[in-house]
Design a protein that fits this description.
Order of helices and strands: HHHEEEHEHEEEHEEEEEEEEEEEEEEEE
Helix content: 10-25%
Radius of gyration: 32 Å
Number of strands: 23
Largest sheet: 11 strands, mixed
Structural class: alpha+beta
CATH topology: YerB-like fold
Number of helices: 6
Length: 348
């Protein structure tokens, strides 16, 4: 009987020791299952810079391969008082403003990444605007033009889309403005017209140079510039330090887009001083865009004097600092203000 009890006790003690050992081993087991190692690629700054970043060749802003392979288009915009405000300018990447007869100004806007659903009012062609359109091998959108402009369109084989030879699916008039300040088109209509005419879809052209990132130019500080083209055409740009852009005004009123109501702005303002001459009884003018001249480059609330150069009517206009260094524009919208050499801008 005693032996049986001892045997039972030994069995119980052994069981306790066994369970204790198991419990100890269980405590030493890992609390989670080991996972496959994760591969983390830490790219250096140099490697990131080497990656291809696709940007618009017209503005330096981020884009994609499909978009930048399209053909840019240049639209002639009416800027008479009865034509304002204009639709579509908020999506243009470069806008040119130049004088026309009667001391009025007219715009030509270059589009690539933007695709406005309403563009206009559209007005007639002038030869000096054609000079600028050719810099981008752009589709040229207008309604008729001066005799010299129409001759240039033929001689230079411009990819011409004129309301004079297109139907109402390409150009149409809206009733909220009086003729001739009420003619409009759209991106889809322009692309449709280009396809109908079998114009080349893809083009190559020299481009302006752009910084990869926003840069200071180390110039003189300014908060506002005023360009007095004429009585009803006083243009001003006012710098906004928070947005880091210049907002645009006409006759001290905000320049708004007709459709989006967006206040138009510029990252870059280029003042190009040129020789101008009245050439006929209609008051048409000749603007000398081929050659060299002076100007101003304005960005980020700073201004520097520049030199411009254009070697041919098709050639791109290049801009240089006074030391001969070609200018790298900051990425963003550029307003090109082309003014006579005798104009004086007010800098504040």
């Amino acid at each position: 009987m005693f032996k049986k009890c001892n045997l039972a006790i030994l069995i119980i003690i052994g069981g306790i020791l066994f369970l204790g050992g198991c419990a100890k081993e269980e405590k030493e087991m890992p609390t989670s299952v080991e996972q496959e190692p994760q591969v983390v690629i830490d790219k250096s700054e140099n490697e990131i810079e080497k990656e291809e970043i696709i940007v618009s060749p017209i503005s330096g802003i981020d884009s994609d391969q499909e978009t930048i392979q399209k053909r840019p288009f240049a639209v002639m915009f009416d800027n008479q008082v009865k034509a304002r405000p204009q639709a579509g300018l908020d999506q243009a990447e470069i806008i040119y403003e130049m004088l026309a007869e009667g001391n009025i100004t007219r715009y030509m806007a270059i589009f690539l990444t933007g695709e406005p659903k309403l563009i206009g009012p559209v007005r007639s062609a002038r030869p000096y605007f054609i000079n600028k359109a050719m810099e981008y091998d752009a589709l040229y959108i207008h309604d008729g033009g001066s005799p010299q402009a129409l001759e240039d369109i033929v001689n230079f084989k411009i990819a011409d889309i004129s309301a004079q030879s297109r139907d109402q699916s390409i150009f149409w008039r809206k009733s909220h403005k009086s003729r001739p300040h009420n003619e409009y088109t759209s991106t889809n209509a322009i692309r449709k017209a280009a396809m109908q005419s079998r114009y080349r879809e893809q083009v190559t052209f020299d481009t302006l140079k752009f910084n990869k990132k926003d840069q200071s130019i180390g110039g003189d500080q300014l908060g506002k510039i005023v360009i007095p083209y004429s009585k009803d055409y006083k243009v001003s740009f006012v710098y906004d330090e928070d947005a880091m852009v210049f907002y645009r005004y006409i006759n001290d009123q905000k320049h708004l887009d007709e459709e989006s109501k967006k206040h138009l702005s510029a990252k870059n303002i280029m003042i190009q001083k040129v020789s101008t001459t009245v050439i006929d009884n209609e008051g048409r003018i000749e603007i000398q865009l081929v050659g060299k001249g002076q100007g101003l480059y304005i960005t980020n609330g700073q201004m520097k004097e520049v030199v411009w150069e254009k070697t041919s009517r098709r050639g791109i206009t290049k801009f240089f600092y006074e030391n001969g260094e070609e200018i790298d524009l900051n990425p963003g919208v550029t307003w090109m203000e082309v003014i006579p050499t005798n104009f004086e801008c007010s800098i504040q």
